Batch of 2 targets.
Target 1
Amino acid sequence: MKQPIRVAVTGAAGQIGYALLFRIASGQMFGPEQPVILQLIEIPNEKALKALEGVAMELDDCAFPLLSGMVLTSKAEEGFGDANWCLLVGAKPRGPGMERADLLKDNGKIFVAQGQVIDRVAAADARVAVVGNPANTNCMIAASVARRLPADRYTAMVRLDQNRATTQLAKKAKVATTAISDVFIFGNHSPTMFSAFHLAKINGKPATTVIGHHEWLRGEFQETVGKRGAAIIAARGASSAASAANALVDHVRDLTTVGKVHSIAVKSNGDYGFDPNVWAGLPVKTTAPGSYEVIKGLGLDDFAREKIAKTNKELVEERQAVAELLK
Ligand code: NAD
Ligand code: LMR
């Protein structure tokens, strides 16, 4: 048996936490050979900590062979101590009528405080994956306070958008989702994100040729994927949780599987016209467990460039809105 890895999860008693922890403990994130110690972090509030105890009791009751231990805490130092992976889920979700950027001021502060502690106490090989919204900018905030861990360790999740786009393309083409590949998400996890249909493939052929309906690809398809979070809030009365947890499982699993090609939000270095220093969804290839390279040189047409300029503008504006939090 391998040595256990330590996985810190914030917001562990929340909606996403409840859909996520059982999948990590069952081996779906790090594989069937990798034991884990879950370090579960909640706010210092009686109700939240009581709920966390209940979740831990349920995890115990699953008798997962890979679950080597659990730490339940409201102290960031303890929760992130020696963590190999820090999954930053804990933050306020938006309600009906709000945009994700409306969460910036409240949630941004969480990522300054947690970013500083992670940089101080997490393992030398620590990786950070941000889910709490607005995920790209929160990730940038956490990375900006780091002095020890390099910026490329900090990724934010656009995988839910990738998965949503995959299913919409599969439905339109009347094929299984397994027929869809090369679905890349550029930019912000927000309605401005660009789902690059011109690069997507269906059974190895260009999606544009197979679907042929360019107006749909440029219009309804982008809109459905970009506004799916709001549609779920309107229908469920609460923000997506199981699909978000599933996307994080996919994000980390693909980021630890060498050769995988997928989309994650990472620090831009100017590729594809993004402003350097924003965290933008980009196509990457996993080069070693937890490491990746941005796939360069994919063709962009005028439509793609225009969409990327718009989502980049939003990321730059979010960055300006939290300028006082950046160190
Ligand atoms: P939730 O309200 O059900 O749970 C959030 C939990 O985080 C709560 O239990 C709360 O006590 C805890 N929390 C708050 N601040 C914390 C802190 N500083 N430290 C530790 N825990 C803290 O919300 P949820 O539905 O689980 O969503 C969590 C976040 O994920 C929201 O910001 C939501 O918008 C975001 N989200 C992102 C995506 C994505 O694709 N990036 C998808 C869905 C939801
Ligand atoms: C989503 O995309 O479902 C989440 O980011 C939640 C939200 O606020 O839309």
Target 2
Amino acid sequence: MKETEETIEKYRKAGKILSDVRAEAVNKVKEGETLLSVAEFTENLIREKGGEPAFPVNISRNDEAAHTTPSFSDKAVFGKDMVKLDIGVHIDGYIADTAITVDLSGNPELVKAVEKALEDAIRTVHAGVNTNEIGGAIEDAITSCGYKPVINLTGHGLEQYIQHAPPSIPNKRMPHGDILEEGDIVAIEPFATNGGGKIYDAGNAEIYHLVSEKPVRHPSARKLLEEIKKYKTLPFAKRWLGNNVDFAMLTLVKADIIRPYPILKEINRGLISQAEHTIIITEDGCEVITK
Ligand code: CO
């Protein structure tokens, strides 16, 4: 989708807030710290700086790849984990998306591999680049470090209030891809693993999204739906809605008004590292808005 100068500025502003927030959030990830305190710190900092969380902070550990966020009274603490923070900020629905790995597990090479993959991928980008070339750069970087890319996760386009818009940006060389044009805005997000290189759905997470606004009769569910509508089509956390929403949530899920995102885990329980930046394609390269 073609953006205007005004909407591009909103992406840039979201990206700037996100860079600052990421720098502070990584310092909070320590052994013994609760995941919930890191999630709340990060989401509150986004709001203090004038943005809104584009999705709940994803805090995925070890073999978890994505769609994990703490519950309302989550007591889990960090141990010797490989921790991924995936954070999004939006300004009026214009989203910047970034991820970083904080390694408490003693596997820094796996983190270096994914960071190199992101750098190499960004270096291939220019107006007219095919997404399969980006995937090839990611695959080559990760395999040259002795690991595997996670091939059934991809980067993605971004549109107003849509976090995962086409095109997808593969994490391996593909037979066919899409051409990126000047002004396109995409998130590139390689994942590397010492496991099998694929993820599977490992049950329901704490993250949901609205799929249709059907009428709902039950008063508590109707009231909750009004709350949820303010997130529009963006993902939201169950914990954002308070402590006592189990019945109303279930009612909305059963009516297929909201849907949960499944937690994604590595098939061989391998460790996963992740890195992500949001970029604007330019004629001869790109502008990284989450630098
Ligand atoms: Co993303």
